[in-house]
Design brief:
Layout (H helix, E strand, L loop, with lengths): L1 H30 L1 H6 L9 E3 L5 H4 L2 E2 L2 E7 L5 H5 L8 E5 L1 E2 L14 E10 L5 E7 L5 E6 L2 E6 L16 E7 L3 E10 L6 E2 L4 E4 H35 L4 H17 L6 H5 L5 H26 L6 H20 L2 H4 L3 H24 L5 H22 L9 H38 L3 H59 L6 H32 L8 E4 H10 L2 H6 L3 E7 L1 H5 L4 E4 L1 H17 L6 E7 L5 E8 L21 H7 L5 H11 L4 E7 L3 E9 L4
Parallel strand pairs: 1-6, 15-17
Antiparallel strand pairs: 2-13, 3-4, 3-6, 5-12, 6-11, 7-10, 7-13, 8-9, 8-11, 14-16, 17-18, 18-20, 19-20
């Protein structure tokens, strides 16, 4: 069984790696098909694109990517160039790309403004009929080819008041009587955060471009229809079985993504309703994405409630609602600025949902493997759309629809498996119930006993997993807590050496020694943290032996006698108690080396904070009762009353200035507490008076006959 699970894990890991490679390579393939299929394709340079050697019949259409002439704050017409009036010197802007998302001649421009783009294209032959695919342009434009106005959307103006926006994709055909064409484009944007040509233009023969556009529109319609049908289907399932809310959430999610499909890409909505308001169309695009996130989080949470977190779900839902309200009440120029921040939230949501699904897969929830793979594909498609929206790579903004279509197919398979499993279980249960009729009471008792055993086992395992998780989280938080300062110090020392501040060999050696000391300290800290985490998780194997209390206390006491004497401190052992006085010492079962670790922490703390001439007294009391009591008292600096409740906490030191000199990290007493409690004992501060001394006590259970 473990071998099968290991092999399955390997296949899923391989699939994840392949999908990561795909998400890194597909945007390049989608954005530059000519280079992928046909080698290096021509690019526009300095406002001119030479296609004299390009064979459109053999190589197909071509995207007009590259440097276009760029005239900021100018609305030139073909007559302006024909009349050779005063034309400002052109700058060069890379197309595709928003003008406010790229430096143009080392200048940065605002997203609001108006410009003129111009490109000359050298064709292989004249007298042919060409076509050009015009993408949506933010947010109004007028397009001339060879002086003829062939396309426009919205109203181009020089201010917000005398312009209005519209999104529209077009396919225009034209006949070229010469081997050179001039493309002139006026663009104004006062309504959106990004201005300019965010998508590429594509030039080709008329019978190439038009079929491509028809196929693209057909795919959008296919996606819309498929997603809408599946959404309505799941809503129908919810109406039949309303206690399963996952179908409700998934149905609404599909409908929202379906609506988003017709307002991106080819913007099919405008082809059906040309007069549809631009502002409402863009709000629909944004709101559908925001609400889809909320419903998908609810859907996964409903499928795997034990692996998900209700608090995190509520956070994502609240954030989605806030973005939705912002989009509804504010103009486009305002809410479009928050798209990048939403993509950050979306990234966290993807990580959270994949984590939930991986937990469910690890716990072998039914159907989770298929959902996990489908969700990863869907996540990759969403990441692709995020890359497109932020113009990090030239890609497509419609991949999420295809990803969702794949997810729906997988979800349908899981639903079929679920229904089939339910039917099979029903048949099996009917047979079992028929067999149990003859001896129902006996069967109930047997099953009850079995369930109690299973329940006890599950409780033990859950407790172990909880303890392991707490230990892991403590380990991570503690490492980040106390490694920050030495790492920063090491960084400063290294930078000082690299920057030449340390210019002598002696200083360099001193700095390197300091770095070495910090590294050794970090190593000791990590070792202590690891040991403490193992103790808390009960993963340390104790080598316990049976010893008398007399043998144990002498073993613990004698090892540190020389250290105390060398420090000039009186070191005494007192043995008392009824059993000790009668000579019938009790027996304890202990790991001697672990108790030495406890004893060394306590004795060395006493030595550290006790002046020469002071006294350390170790007293063992054995009354022959349930436990052995050990007191370690000193005449040292003592602990303040406010500090005493916290001295066994991680990283707590009662005197930080003194501790920094001695190199303590506040873990010794925490480790001691875990060791004593693992032996079934207790440890506490008996008394402490500032500048008068401290007494720490611990107990070890004795063995009863």
């Amino acid at each position: 069984m473990l071998w099968i699970k290991s092999k399955l894990s390997g296949w899923i890991l391989l699939f994840f790696l392949l999908m990561i490679v795909a998400v890194l390579t597909l945007p390049e393939i989608q954005g530059k098909p000519e280079e992928w299929l046909k080698g290096n394709s021509p690019k526009a340079s300095q406002g001119v694109m030479n296609l004299a050697d390009w064979n459109f019949k053999e190589k197909g259409s071509l995207r007009l990517n590259g440097e276009w002439e760029f005239y900021w704050a100018q609305l030139y017409t073909p007559e302006s160039f024909a009349a050779k009036t005063t034309i400002q010197a052109p700058e060069m802007a890379v197309v595709p790309g928003s003008w406010n998302r790229q430096p143009i001649n080392s200048k940065s421009y605002s997203g609001s403004g108006y410009v003129t783009y111009r490109l000359k294209v050298m064709l292989p032959t004249s007298g042919r009929t060409y076509a050009m695919s015009v993408p949506f342009i933010t947010s109004a434009y007028r397009l001339w080819i060879n002086g003829e106005l062939l396309a426009e959307a919205g109203k181009v103006g020089t201010s917000y008041e005398d312009s209005f926006a519209m999104y529209s994709t077009k396919t225009i055909g034209f006949h070229s009587n010469s081997s050179e064409i001039e493309i002139l484009l006026q663009v104004s944007n006062f309504h959106h955060m990004k201005g300019g040509l965010r998508q590429p233009f594509e030039l080709g023969l008329f019978d190439q471009i038009v079929p491509q556009k028809e196929i693209s529109v057909g795919f959008d319609m296919l996606l819309f229809g498929s997603l809408m049908i599946m959404g309505l289907y799941h809503l129908g399932l919810f109406s039949i079985r309303s206690n399963d809310r996952s179908t409700l959430y998934f149905g609404l999610f599909c409908i929202l993504i379906a609506l988003r499909t017709i307002v991106i890409g080819e913007i099919v909505l405008l082809k059906v309703f040309p007069a549809f308001p631009w502002e409402l169309e863009l709000k629909l695009e944004y709101i559908s994405a925001y609400l889809a996130l909320a419903f998908f989080v609810l859907f996964i949470g409903e499928l795997f409630p034990n692996e998900s977190s209700r608090k995190i779900q509520r956070c994502f839902i609240l954030i989605s609602i806030c973005y939705t309200v912002l989009t509804v009440v504010s103009p486009t120029i305002v809410y479009s600025r928050f798209l990048l921040s939403f993509h950050v939230v979306l990234g966290f949501a993807i990580v959270f949902e994949l984590y939930v699904l991986m937990r469910a897969w690890y716990l072998q929830r039914p159907g989770c493997s298929i959902i996990l793979v489908a969700s990863f594909v869907f996540a990759v498609s969403i990441i692709n759309d995020m890359i497109y929206a932020n113009e990090w790579l030239s890609t497509t903004g419609r991949a999420s629809g295809f990803g969702l279509l794949f997810f729906i197919i997988c979800q349908s398979g899981v639903l079929s498996m679920k229904l089939s499993r339910a039917f099979s279980n029903e048949e099996k249960m009917s047979a079992v119930l028929a067999q149990m009729n003859s001896s129902l009471s006996v069967k109930i008792k047997e099953r009850t006993a079995d369930l109690e055993l299973v329940n006890d086992e599950l409780m033990v395992r859950n407790s172990e997993m909880s303890r392991l998780e707490i230990s892991r989280s403590h380990l991570l938080s503690n490492i980040s807590h106390d490694l920050g300062t030495p790492l920063t110090t090491i960084q400063c020392y290294v930078e000082a050496i690299l920057d030449g501040i340390v210019d002598t060999e002696e200083q360099r050696k001193q700095y390197i020694q300091l770095i070495h000391g910090k590294v050794l300290g970090m190593g000791r800290l990590i070792e202590d943290l690891f040991q403490l985490s193992q103790l808390e998780a009960r993963q340390v194997a104790f080598q316990k032996l049976y010893l008398t209390t007399e043998t144990l206390i002498h073993s613990l006491f004698s090892r540190y006698e020389l250290d105390a004497r060398n420090a000039g401190i009186s070191y005494q052992l007192i043995i008392s108690g009824n059993a000790a006085e009668s000579g019938n010492f009790s027996t304890v079962q202990v790991d001697v080396e672990r108790l030495h670790q406890v004893f060394s922490n306590l004795i060395y703390n006493s030595i550290k904070f006790t002046q020469a001439g002071g006294e350390i007294q170790v007293e063992m009391i054995d009354d022959g009762d349930k436990e052995m009591l050990c007191r370690i008292s000193d005449t040292g600096a003592g602990i303040t009353e406010n500090d005493m409740p916290f001295i066994f906490d991680r990283f707590y030191t009662s005197n930080r200035s003194r501790n920094s000199v001695s190199g303590g990290k506040g873990l010794g007493l925490s480790i001691s507490k875990e060791i004593i409690e693992s032996h079934g004992g207790k440890i506490w501060v008996g008394r402490s008076v500032l500048n008068a001394g401290t007494e720490i006590c611990f107990t070890i259970p004795v063995q009863t006959s």
